[in-house]
Amino acid sequence: MIFMKLKHKLHFFLAFILFILPISVWAIPEYVVPGGENIGIKVSNEGVIVVGFYEVDGEDVGRESGLVLGDVIKKVNGEAVSSIDDMVAKMETGDIENTQITYERNGKEYDTALSVTKDDNGVYKTGLYVKDSILGIGSITYIDTSSGIATYGALGHEIDEKNTAYKIEVKEGKIFASTVTGITKGTATTPGSKNARFDSSKILGNIKANEASGIYGTYSEEVTKEAMKVGTKDDIQIGPATILTVLNGDEVEEFDIEILNLDPDHETKNILFQVTDERLLESTGGIVQGMSGSPIIQNDMIIGAVTHVVVSDPAKGYGIYLTTMLDEAEKQGT
Asked: Where in the chain is the domain with CATH 2.30.42.10?
């Protein structure tokens, strides 16, 4: 009898736990507004990135300090730096010929000394080429208004510093208006690109996160387009589809593609497709830089975003599942 009572209590306790334990299930929206608009992108990094070296009076002082491409300078003379201007200002506070640098590499911090000189024009010679921000173009994938606050996802891949492949750690960032002024056509050896004019005074939103699946943030412009149903992985089929992108000015147009293969296991290259639209092929040669983030549409559903071109065959490209982007947006709270 005592055993039966204990067993009954145990069942009740387990049932109680099942009901009260929080379950982390990301609830992605059922509908989002498809993008395709061209955007300018500017993101500032947390720290100053080493992107190159030059000799000073015949000496390679940058490399001799132990720094390598992709290192991120975090402190100068013991004080935190967040920009190039900040870095220069901190150099002036110490022994310039023995500037103390704290840098980050692969998530760990190290210290070194850098021999800095100042020329007759008052310019500091560090032997380093550095960056603290990235400027570029891309395409909006979707806008989500389901929470009452408009948020967006774009690009379908992370923003890297191209010389070092260093993933930018967002200090602050923004997306802004951009107009396509022309196309550099791609070839089998050289990817093409959109040429664009920026209007950085017209801010469209902020950048809160830079992840493997894209950039995410709050969208500040009025949303007037109709929402479209989100297609899951199971909804996607081999066969005809379309992409939305801008070739001229700011007009979003729809172009035909053919989905050739699906790879659910890849992080970002889930959808292999080929451009079949003759006008797009004539204008661009296929997929070009600046199309990243262009929505992929199939059966009246938004199913993914363009991420990469197949360099050896620019008529072919890769896309990421939209649900992957939406899952990441939920994790980031955007």
From this structure: 55-126
Q: Is 133 a catalytic residue?
A: no
Check if 263 is active-site.
no
Catalytic one of 132, 277, 294, 308? 277
Of 44, 213, 292, 294, the catalytic one is 292
Say whether 83 is catalytic.
no
Q: How far apart are CA 194 and CA 202, in angstroms?
A: 20
SS3 139: strand
State CA 213 to chain mean position distance: 7
Per the document, the length of the chain is: 334
Domain with CATH 2.40.10.120 in the chain: 31-44+133-332
Class of domain 31-44+133-332: mainly beta
Q: How far is CA 244 from CA 38, 234, 238, 300, 306, in A?
A: 10, 21, 18, 13, 10
C-alpha–C-alpha distance, residues 276 and 241, integer Å:
10
157, 178, 213, 308: the active-site residue? 157
SS3 251: coil
pLDDT in tens, the chain (334 residues): 433 343 444 443 344 333 444 444 457 899 999 999 999 999 999 899 999 999 888 888 889 899 999 999 999 999 999 899 999 888 887 777 788 999 999 889 999 998 887 776 777 788 999 999 999 999 999 999 998 899 999 999 999 988 888 889 899 999 999 999 999 998 888 889 999 999 989 999 999 999 999 999 999 999 999 999 999 999 999 999 999 999 999 999 999 999 999 999 998 999 999 999 999 999 999 999 999 999 999 999 999 999 999 989 999 999 999 999 999 999 988 7
Distance separating alpha carbons of residues 23 and 136, to the nearest angstrom: 39
CATH 2.30.42.10 holds for 55-126: yes
Cα end-to-end span (Å), the chain: 55
Does the pTM of the predicted model rise above 0.90? no
